[in-house]
Amino acid sequence: MVSIMQTLIPQLRDDGWESLLDKVVSFCGKYNILVLDMNATYRVEQHYRVDVFIVAINSQLQELNNRFSESISELLRLSATLDPRKSFNSDDIYKLVTKYYLLDFTEQDKIELKLELQHYELDNDPKLKNVT
Known about the structure:
Layout: H1 2-15, H2 17-30, H3 42-67, H4 70-80, H5 90-100, H6 107-122
Helix pairs in contact: 1-3, 5-6
InterPro entries: AtLOH3-like (IPR055298)
């Protein structure tokens, strides 16, 4: 979800101004609120689009990137593979163990885990899809 938002927010910044402006104008028209003519002077649109809209979007994107670095996003994505209702990926589970749980597993544990994951992948019980 984080990586999706990191993709969608820049798209909103680049392509969302017209859609937002249309919604604002529609809302204002519905409630008889005076709307500034954005085409009257360049400064009005410049202020609302660049100084408010784009600054707010960039601030949100920066906050998202600060809170969810690439390594944190990867950890979240890999952790999601532990949910049996999702698509099972033994490689991701093994990567999670070898990259983020170095002190919790011995080399022998890792070898055994890899084999167990391969067995589980071949003998995946459909009842696990309904686990909550």
